[in-house]
Design a protein that fits this description.
This protein is mainly alpha-helical. It has two domains: 60 residues; 199 residues, no CATH class. The protein contains ten helices and two strands, in the order ααβαβααααααα. The protein has a two-stranded antiparallel ribbon with strand order 1-2. Helix 6 packs antiparallel against helix 10. The chain starts with a helix and ends with a helix.
């Protein structure tokens, strides 16, 4: 305190013009330090934010690109065996489900077997769910619609498998496995074009997002029963016009027919033993 008082007294003893000069020098010096501190803090903070946003943007673009690649990979086509194709065509005609007969033996590879369909669904569903943090609102909604649409295919296989599990019959039994493979082919023949359309919607939404990249916060989504299951909701409501829902009774009949085929084949095989 004495030191400060000494400085003040010394300044007061100086000529007026010297005292004013010292004061102005202090003002300029301290003001410059203050401005420099503010500038460094603000621009340093902005630089840090830009760096983080750049990392997130790169990650987001990588995820979109990878998801596009996974969806495009699902479009690979295989030719199913003649016996599977003939049995599937016969059963579809008996049930009365419409399908495109042109090249109907050429299916997406995921419909080559129930195992491949299940594996593809579970892997893609897990990937989409694990990356939701990076989706913008439109991509998030379209991805969730696709998840729920694709899940119906797995549910149809579960409907088939559950009948045999309840009856104590192994799904590995030759006749049971053969009937499920025919069912998988039927689902492909009836629904693969629509499945590709659903994939393309996700891809198109991601492409639009690429062209309008921003860091706006995604809208807060309230997940509840109506969100997923209401006919007027954003998920089921958008799926109501799909063939998989509009013709669900006939598609369920296809599953029932496959169950009957598997059961009958298993009974005949047991009698021969």
């Amino acid at each position: 305190m004495n030191f400060v008082n000494s400085i003040i007294e010394s300044v007061n003893q100086c000529p007026e013009y010297i005292g004013k000069g010292i004061v102005q020098l202090l003002v300029v010096t301290l003001g410059g330090v203050f401005v420099a501190w503010i500038t460094t803090s603000l621009f340093g903070r902005r630089s840090e934010i830009n760096a983080v946003e750049g990392v997130l943007l790169k990650r987001k673009m990588d995820i979109y690109e990878e998801l596009c690649g996974k969806l495009e990979a699902l479009k690979a086509v295989v030719v199913i065996p003649d016996d599977v194709h003939e049995a599937a065509v016969k059963m579809l005609k008996e049930v009365g489900v419409t399908f495109n007969p042109l090249n109907s033996n050429q299916l997406l590879s995921i419909f080559d077997s129930p195992q491949e369909l299940t594996k593809s669904f579970l892997e893609l569903d897990e990937y989409i769910a694990s990356k939701k943090l990076y989706y913008d609102h439109d991509v998030m909604m379209q991805a969730m619609r696709f998840q729920n649409y694709f899940a119906v295919f797995r549910r149809l296989l579960v409907m088939y498998e559950q009948e045999f599990v309840n009856a104590g019959i192994s799904l590995k039994e030759k006749e049971v496995a053969a009937a499920e493979r025919i069912l998988t082919a039927e689902l492909g023949m009836v629904l693969q074009d629509e499945l590709v359309e659903q994939m393309d919607k996700v891809i198109a939404t991601m492409k639009r997002s690429f062209l309008n990249l921003n860091f706006n916060h995604r809208k807060q989504i309230e997940y509840n029963y109506d969100f997923f299951n209401s006919p007027d909701g954003p998920i089921l409501g958008e799926m109501m016009d799909t063939k998989i829902l509009k013709e669900r009774e006939k598609i369920t009949a296809v599953v029932t027919s496959a169950v009957a085929l598997g059961m009958a084949g298993n009974i005949i095989a047991r009698k021969k033993k």
